[in-house]
Design goal:
Blueprint lengths: L10 H11 L16 E4 L10 H10 L4 E4 L11 H12 L4 E8 L14 H15 L3 E5 L11 H15 L1 H7 L2 E5 L7 H11 L4 E5 L1 H6 L4 H8 L3 E4 L3 E7 L2 E7 L8 H11 L5 E3 L6 E4 L15 H13 L13 H23 L7
Length: 362
């Protein structure tokens, strides 16, 4: 079958999406209001390279309740409590709550960076910054799918992460900041992340749930949420289109409502089992990822995959269909196209969440 043509977004499409998102009241026929706070993850508009205040302003423009800053860069070089307090006040004055995140705290992960010192020092810095910003949780990650093939496998990387988390227990409890470990880039399946939380201590460790990353771990996002729901502290969500191919399955992240995730069931579960947790949209759309399930070598990455979990993922693929990738033009126009595309994906997603799913409290 021939692949669909790539998507090229016009500025008119982007402006139309932003205009639609600015309509705050729920339209006729829309879902009932669920009372779930709605915001976005700054990685959704990463090409803009906005600082914290610009991100807050965009949250206001989109009518969001919350802003999830999942890396330290938008906060600049001044990370003392006074500077962070100014950012907190700037957001609070505009009705926006800030949540904070950072990167790997697994010292043996392929993704770990020493930019913030040791894993323990990185976690300590993040806890202090989260407290200063008023963030109830600090999002961190273990790594990515490549860690599943490292010596000792993902079990060894989980053990190393648990040791770092346990060392920070008193610091986190004293700061009243819980640690939200994400299911990131196919590093852990939901059963494995649940085991990490239970081993580290659920009184101070929980989950940042990423629905798109559940698909990268060969799971249906609804089933993964059901398993992790009691421990979900915050979220980075997007929709996903999954479809069958001659060699397996392909997955491509999408704007909300444009994939094959059962979002109505997802948010029924979320509303019932994750009370008070904010929905943050993190659209990272436009590129496919193939999973060659017919290749026996592929299963070295997931040697302990459960049949019931894989069955749910394959059922998702049967509901989906191939969609085109996003291909920005080359040359000087590329960055502009990427920025407009990212803004449009986020704006459409926020509008869909508000008008169809009934999310948001503003």
């Amino acid at each position: 079958m021939n692949a669909p043509p790539p998507v090229r977004l016009s500025r008119r499409d982007w402006l139309s999406a932003v205009a639609a998102c600015a309509v705050l009241p729920v339209t006729a026929g829309a879902s009932r209001r669920r009372g779930i706070p709605l915001g976005f993850d700054n990685f959704a508009v990463r090409a803009l390279r906005w600082d914290a205040r610009q991100l807050v302003d965009h949250a206001v423009e989109l009518g969001c309740d919350s802003l999830f800053i999942t890396d330290f860069a938008p906060l600049g070089d001044r990370r003392d409590d006074a500077a962070l307090g100014e950012v907190r006040s700037y957001a609070a004055d505009r009705g926006v709550r800030i949540e904070l995140g950072s990167w790997s705290v697994c010292p043996t992960s392929k993704t770990f960076k020493s930019d913030w010192g040791t894993a323990e020092e990185h976690l300590a810095l993040g806890i202090r910054m989260a407290r200063a910003l008023g963030s109830p949780a600090l999002r961190v990650i273990l790594g990515n799918q490549a860690d599943r093939l490292t010596p000792g496998g993902i079990e060894a990387r989980i053990a190393d992460t648990v040791a770092v988390l346990k060392a920070a227990r008193s610091r986190a409890l004293d700061a009243n900041v819980r640690i939200a470990v994400e299911n990131h880039a196919g590093d852990m399946q939901s059963r494995e992340l649940l085991g990490l939380v239970e081993a580290a201590g659920p009184e101070f460790v929980g989950v940042n749930f990423d629905s798109g990353n559940a698909c990268w771990a060969l799971e249906d996002p609804v089933a993964a949420l059901e398993r992790l729901a009691p421990h979900v502290l915050t979220t980075s969500l997007r929709d996903t289109m999954v479809w069958e191919t001659p060699t397996g399955v392909t997955s491509q992240w999408t704007a909300m409502g444009e994939g094959c995730t059962d979002l109505a069931s997802f948010f029924d579960v979320f509303e019932r089992r994750c009370p008070g947790v904010t929905v943050h949209i993190e659209t990272i759309s436009g590129f496919p990822r193939a999973f060659p399930l017919a290749d026996r070598g592929f299963w070295r990455t997931f040697p302990d995959a459960r049949a019931e979990d894989l069955a749910g993922f394959l059922a998702l693929a049967k509901r989906g269909h191939e969609i085109p990738p996003f291909e920005p033009p080359s040359g000087p126009a590329k960055l502009t196209a990427e920025r407009e595309y990212q803004q449009a994906e986020l704006a459409r997603s926020i509008a869909y969440c508000r008008e169809t799913l009934g999310l948001g409290v503003r």
